[in-house]
Amino acid sequence: MEAMNIHTHSGINTTLCGTPVKIGEGYSLVTLQTTPEMGVDDYGLVHGGFVFGMADYAAMIAVNHPNVALGAADIRFLKPVRIGDTLMAEARQESKDGKKQNVFVRVIRDGEHVFEGTFVCFVLKNHVLEK
Predict the structure, then answer these.
(1) Which residues is 25 bridged to in the sheet?
(2) Which of 69, 87, 74, 90 lies closest to 27, judged by CA?
(3) Residue 1 pLDDT greater than 60, yes or no
(4) For residue 54, which of 85, 19, 21 has the smallest C-alpha distance?
(5) Whether this model's pTM surpasses 0.90
(6) Residue/partner pairs of 35-41 with CB below 8 Å, 24 or more apart
């Protein structure tokens, strides 16, 4: 795979939040293989936080700025996710107004939509933890 110029979240654990496979201006595609560590019960249900984390990571890469921070999210879990599922999150910038960017993310499993949401991202002057 060709090196991608990702300028954000350089220390993220891709096993938990997904692996970027494609980026472009206002766009990203991230894949995630769900694992037993993500499960919550004997049925093999994956905790929704992992799906949200993947979608959030995809949104951050679509903005692709070192000081991007999530301000809000309007999300919907559409279908349950199981251990062993391979997920794909596609993020597209919908609008940009100064430091605020809205990014729509859809998570798909085998052609079926399992999650979607709009992430309100802010590009800050400094890192959110910088004083």
Answers:
(1) none
(2) 90
(3) no
(4) 19
(5) yes
(6) 35/83, 36/83, 38/83, 39/83
